């Protein structure tokens, strides 16, 4: 895929680290993280690739920087928020952001180096749990349960890469490959994917998240 150069007015803007990283995010969103290179990033900014090294020394530095910028889009709780409502809001926000940037969840798992935005988000989740009365041990387990749900579910979702309009045809092909009269619960499950969704249904991610939060509340209340 050829990346279009920026328009002349944009090209006249001075380079900065923030501008380079935001261009990298746009390139990754459009073409995928594997398509990003210093050469293509330079083309997108209308400059020679060598001029980028003044702002980002390596591709790893770019990856760390763009992940940190993406995490700044995660919502943080308001002071005094109810803990379950706050964690639900934060988790859904993080999931939605990572779906908007389909490359980000996998890069977030592998990125190294400082990530101040990630640290702030982690501290907010941990602080919400601690102030809600969870012990340090419970908070450790709860944080990892939430984080793995957000990251793992997002990775599964973005890697499916199935457009809703394509699903009926794929389901028909799948059902046609099953042994006739066997596996009735799997057949039922496929038909569940084809049914019209209730507009109030928040989907599988929210369902799993609520299971985790309800379970955490029971653990906390048991003491």
What does this structure look like?
The chain has 223 residues and is mostly helical. The protein folds into 2 domains: 8-57, Orthogonal Bundle (Arc Repressor Mutant, subunit A); 71-222, Tetracycline Repressor, domain 2, CATH 1.10.357. Helix content is 66%, strand content 0%. It contains 11 helices and no strands. It has helices spanning 8-11, 17-31, 38-45, 59-71, 83-100, 104-110, 116-131, 136-160, 167-177, 184-194, 204-222. Helix 2 packs across helix 4 (59-71), helix 7 crosses helix 8 and helix 8 (136-160) packs antiparallel against helix 11 (204-222). The longest helix is centred in the middle third of the chain and has 25 residues, at 136-160. The chain is flat and about 60 Å long. The model has no long low-confidence stretch (mean pLDDT 88).
């Amino acid at each position: 895929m050829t990346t279009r150069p920026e328009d002349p007015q944009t090209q006249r803007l001075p380079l900065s680290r923030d501008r380079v990283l935001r261009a990298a995010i746009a390139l990754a969103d459009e073409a995928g993280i594997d398509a990003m290179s210093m050469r293509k990033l330079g083309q997108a900014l209308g400059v020679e690739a060598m001029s980028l090294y003044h702002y980002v020394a390596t591709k790893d530095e770019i990856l760390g920087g763009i992940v940190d910028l993406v995490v700044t889009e995660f919502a943080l709780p308001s002071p005094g928020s109810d803990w379950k409502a706050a964690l639900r809001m934060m988790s859904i926000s993080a999931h939605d952001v990572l779906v908007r940037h389909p490359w980000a969840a996998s890069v977030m798992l592998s990125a190294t180096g400082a990530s101040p935005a990630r640290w702030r988000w982690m501290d907010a989740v941990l602080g919400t749990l601690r102030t809600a009365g969870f012990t340090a041990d419970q908070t450790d387990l709860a944080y990892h349960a939430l984080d793995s749900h957000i990251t793992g579910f997002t990775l599964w979702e973005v890697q499916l890469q199935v457009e809703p309009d394509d699903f009926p045809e794929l389901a028909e092909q799948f059902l046609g490959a099953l042994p006739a009269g066997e596996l009735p619960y799997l057949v039922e499950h496929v038909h569940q994917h084809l049914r019209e969704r209730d507009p109030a249904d928040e989907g599988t991610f929210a369902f799993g998240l609520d299971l985790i939060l309800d379970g955490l509340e029971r653990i906390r209340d048991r003491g």
